[in-house]
Design a protein that fits this description.
About 30% of the residues lie in helices and about 25% in strands. It has about 260 residues and is an alpha/beta fold. It folds into 2 domains: about 160 residues, no CATH class; about 80 residues, Glutaredoxin. Helix 1 crosses helix 3. The longest helix has 17 residues.
């Protein structure tokens, strides 16, 4: 499933949201999204989303430094005086570019997302950049759009954070990127062979994203791709690459981890 298909799936599922809820979204600098929808309006979601992101990306600790600079919030409530539905939605400057995705996951329609107040001491880009060497996964694009749910019962503020489980996202799966130079007949053959191999040999879900290095040179640089075609296994860790025409099925499966080395 590619990112566009995942976006459409998210948009379609958002039509069943409760009328009243609080939603909190946490982005990474690389563009991944993890979010919650809470009808009870629990107050500690930022901490829980950081903990869930730590677990999903294998971070050394929860990335609390992303809050609030990389967050967006939406609040839907019934006005006690008019009994009308009221909606407030705001996002911090670094994530305003993701307004279309926010509108899809929270089903806001034509609602305009407002810019949240800028907090220089918490959102300084130079300060955030100092974390890049310790948390490189956060600056990578894993094509993740994950909704998490709280499990268990409510806990007091002094207790340990509750545990999350991803919703509609398999714990086992592959995130793959195929870097190509041009859309030629050879590229089409490579993609067809790869697709047939993945469908035949992998039983768990996978995401295969095709990237033209001439249209997206920044992505090629981020994934350390210097030749095409190159297949990059982004997830599960560790990252692995195959450069060439991708004709050796056994080598591809070994890189994916489905065969013993």
């Amino acid at each position: 499933m590619n990112y566009r298909a995942k976006f459409q799936e998210t948009k379609n599922s958002a039509t069943s949201l409760p009328q009243v809820f609080k939603g909190i979204a946490l982005f990474t600098p690389g563009g991944d999204l993890i979010y919650c929808i809470d009808p009870s309006k629990h107050s500690r979601w930022h901490l829980h989303l950081c903990a869930a992101l730590q677990e999903r990306l294998g971070l050394p600790e929860p990335p609390h430094f992303l809050v609030p600079g990389y967050t967006a919030t939406i609040d839907r409530w019934i006005d006690p005086y008019t009994q009308q539905l009221r909606i407030s939605a705001e996002a911090h400057a670094p994530v305003l570019r993701h307004k279309a995705l926010l509108s899809a996951v929270f089903n806001t329609g034509d609602l305009v997302w407002q810019a949240a107040p800028w907090l220089e001491q918490l959102c300084n880009p130079m300060v955030l950049a100092t974390y890049r060497s310790q948390f490189p996964q956060l600056w990578e694009d894993h094509d993740l759009v994950i909704r998490v749910e709280r499990t268990g019962i409510d806990v007091p503020a002094s207790a340990e954070p509750v545990i999350f489980a991803p919703e509609r996202v398999e714990t086992k799966g592959y995130i793959l990127r195929l870097f190509v130079g041009k859309n030629t007949a050879a590229t089409e053959r490579t993609l067809e062979r790869l697709h047939q191999l993945l469908e035949r040999a992998i039983s768990c879900p996978y995401t295969l994203k095709v990237i033209d290095i001439f249209k997206h040179p920044e992505q090629a640089e981020a994934d350390q791709v210097s030749a095409t075609p190159t297949l990059v296994k982004v997830w599960p860790r560790p990252v692995r690459r195959i450069v060439g025409e991708l004709e050796n099925a056994g080598e591809i499966l070994r890189v994916l981890g489905t065969l013993d080395n």
